[in-house]
Design a protein that fits this description.
283 residues, alpha/beta, seven-stranded parallel beta sheet, 7 strands, 42% helix, globular
C-alpha cells in the first residue's frame, strides 16, 4: 500500500537540513501529504529555492523556508516559535540536519580519518551539530508536541550499524550512536504524552552532500548501489501519520520498506533491531 496515499492535512512540521538531500525529500513529501512545513536550514537562502518547488501545488500544505543553525539554541527556539506563530501549532519534528565524514575529510588539518590524526575542531563541530543540535531542536519543540498529544512526533535521521562502527568513521559514527540513545531515552521520557520518538535511516550510501569522496569511491569499487534521498520517505510518512500513533522507540530502514505491502507488514519488514541493547540492571 503506497504511503503516498497517507494524508496529513492540518499537521505542522519542521524539517531541519531541508534545503537539499534527505531533508528536502522528507519536507517535500510531508508538504505533498498536506502538512504545513517549515523548511529549516543553516543555508537559509537555499530553503527558498526548495520551497518554491512545491509551494501552491494541488494537495500541498503551506511552506516557508527559514535560516536555522541548530548549534545555536536561540536559533532553534526561534524556529520552533516561528512554526507555531505561522501555522498555529507543531505536530512533527524531523531532525535531519547534521554534518558528515566529508567535513572532516576535507579539512586541511586532517592528516587521516583515524581519530588521532583528524582535525579536533571539526571533530567537535560534528558532534555539536549532530548530537547537541538534535537535542536543542527537540528540547524547544517538545512542549508544543506534547500539546499535540497523539499527533506529536519526533523523527530522528541516523545511519546503518555498519557505518556507526566502521574504521576511520568517528565522529560521525559516534554521533549517530548518540542519536540512537536520544531516541530511546526520549521515547521513555515522553511516555504517556502521546508523543512518539523514532529513528529512520536510508539503509546505505545515499546520494547527498554527506557522501564523502572516499565513500563514493568505495561504493564504485564494491558495486554497491548509491541510494537516492527519497528512499527514506515511506517510513517517515507512515511514522508521521495516525497509522503509527502507537509506535515509539523504534528504528526503520528506508530501503527495506515494501510499498506493495499493507502498512503494518511493510513496517515490520523495515523495522531493524535497536542499536543499543536495553539493560536490565540500570548500569
Amino acid at each position: 500500500m503506497p504511503t503516498s496515499d497517507l494524508r496529513l492535512e492540518g499537521r505542522v512540521a519542521i524539517v531541519t537540513g531541508a534545503a537539499r538531500g534527505i531533508g528536502k525529500a522528507i519536507a517535500h513529501a510531508l508538504t505533498r501529504a498536506g502538512a504545513h512545513v517549515l523548511y529549516a536550514d543553516v543555508d537559509g537562502g537555499t530553503t527558498g529555492m526548495a520551497t518554491r518547488e512545491v509551494a501552491g501545488q494541488p494537495g500541498c500544505g503551506r511552506v516557508l523556508g527559514v535560516p536555522c543553525d541548530i548549534t545555536n539554541p536561540a536559533d532553534c527556539e526561534r524556529t520552533v516559535n516561528e512554526a507555531v506563530r505561522l501555522f498555529g501549532s507543531l505536530d512533527i519534528l524531523v531532525n535531519n540536519a547534521g554534518k558528515g565524514p566529508v567535513h572532516l575529510e576535507r579539512s586541511p588539518r586532517t592528516k587521516s580519518l583515524k581519530f588521532y590524526e583528524a582535525d579536533p575542531m571539526v571533530w567537535r563541530e560534528i558532534i555539536l551539530t549532530n548530537v547537541v543540535g538534535t537535542f536543542f531542536m527537540s528540547h524547544y519543540a517538545a512542549p508544543h508536541l506534547i500539546k499535540a498529544g497523539n499527533k506529536g512526533r519526533i523523527i530522528n535521521v541516523t545511519t546503518s550499524l555498519n557505518t556507526m562502527q566502521r574504521r576511520n568513521n568517528s565522529p560521525y559514527g559516534v554521533s549517530k550512536v548518540a542519536i540512537e540513545a536520544e531516541t530511546l531515552i526520549w521515547s521513555k521520557d515522553l511516555e504517556g504524552t502521546g508523543v512518539t520518538v523514532n529513528t529512520v535511516l536510508p539503509g546505505g550510501a545515499t546520494n547527498t552532500d554527506f557522501l564523502s569522496d572516499m565513500g563514493r569511491q568505495s561504493a564504485q569499487k564494491t558495486g554497491r548501489v548509491v541510494l537516492e534521498p527519497e528512499i527514506i520517505v515511506p517510513p517517515v510518512l507512515w511514522l508521521a501519520s495516525d497509522e503509527a500513533a502507537h509506535i515509539t522507540g523504534q528504528r526503520f530502514v528506508g530501503k527495506d520498506w515494501d510499498e506493495s505491502l499493507p502498512f503494518a507488514e511493510a513496517a515490520a519488514k523495515a523495522r531493524e533491531p535497536q542499536v543499543i541493547r536495553e539493560a536490565d540492571d540500570g548500569r
